[in-house]
Amino acid sequence: MTLSFDAALSAKSSAVAQAVGLIGVPFGLAASVPGTCLGPAAARIVGLAEALSGLGHEVVDRGDLAPVRSHSRTSRDISRLGNHAEAVSHWVEAIHDETLAALTEGQRPLIIGGDHSVSMGSVSAVARHAARDGKRVAVLWIDAHPDFNTPQSSPSGNMHGMSLAFLAGDEDLAEIMRGRAFPAILPTDISVIGARSIDQEEQEAIAAAGVRCHDMRAVDEHGIRYLVEDVLGSIDPTTTHLHVSFDLDVVDPALAPGVGTPVPGGLNYREAHYIMELLHDSGLVGSLDVVELNPMRDIQGQTASLMVDLVGSLFGKAITLRSRQPVGLSRAA
Ligand SMILES: [Mn+2]
């Protein structure tokens, strides 16, 4: 459970110098409600890049993506995988390639969605890049939904609810990458925090696979710090790249109304920020997605502003200037 402090601190110092590779993904067809395609524009309007620069980070804005139709594709019909599967596939490939380019250039990718299908592209690229370095990937999925449905189990057919199953190596969903295999994430290297809307079959699949799922009741019972320690404590930064995927619907809809699939009973303001602050202090985060911002549902940009504030907390914005200790120190002392 306890993080190695020397390892955490050395990972932290090396991460500080790494430029942030900002990638916007204006794609929302894998969600049930239209509008997440406007997420990157809203994030830019409320000053995402400026907020990171203001915290001392070098930001390389790689712009917003547009998919290019690949000529090497097979003509195989993948529409049975879910709604708009063909479009999802084109975007996932484009996201994958851009994220891989950012990693190859030594940047720390920050992907702004778009709906949660964007993580199929970003995390598969992270997995491919990490494998080249002989590393594995741990994924922390902060979300009201575990997104572990498959084409067979999904009640809606919306593919933003299948991202994590894809990343864990679901054989049917592998067709989204059209034969470009990537190293699947081991289910035991996946953790979910904040879930409170889980379909029956999805629940069974998570349990069978061994995904660590800290639902909202676990947040109630144990508190954020304990749960984040539980996730981070098993990660060795010398062997493992940590990817964080933050779905804004994990936050309570009263604070974050601008999402496509709001569910009552979410994280409050301090719980959401505290997760990000602990992740920053750990020095372990190698890449980040922030997804499901839907400006069509937002109220005067409050969810967009919250998103920028939360990203700021993960990138070092502190309430006060007191020195902070990596997660686990109190337990080890
Ligand atoms: Mn999600």
From TrEMBL:
Report what the protein is called.
Arginase
Going by the UniProt record, its keywords in alphabetical order are: Arginine metabolism, Hydrolase, Manganese, Metal-binding
The UniProt note on the cofactor reads as follows: Binds 2 manganese ions per subunit.
Q: Which residues bind Mn(2+)?
A: 116, 143, 145, 147, 247, 249
Enumerate the catalysed reactions. L-arginine + H2O = urea + L-ornithine
Q: Name one GO molecular function term.
A: arginase activity
PANTHER family to which the protein is assigned, alphabetical: ARGINASE (PTHR43782)
Q: Which SUPFAM superfamilies match?
A: Arginase/deacetylase (SSF52768)
Cofactors (names)? Mn(2+)
Query: Which NCBIfam families did the record assign?
Result: rocF_arginase
CDD domains found in the cross-reference section: Arginase
**Protein's pathway:** Nitrogen metabolism; urea cycle; L-ornithine and urea from L-arginine: step 1/1
* Protein family (similarity comment): Belongs to the arginase family.
Q: What is its EC number?
A: 3.5.3.1
Q: Which domain of life is it from?
A: Bacteria
User: What's a GO cellular component annotated to this UniProt protein?
Assistant: cytoplasm
GO BP terms: arginine metabolic process; urea cycle
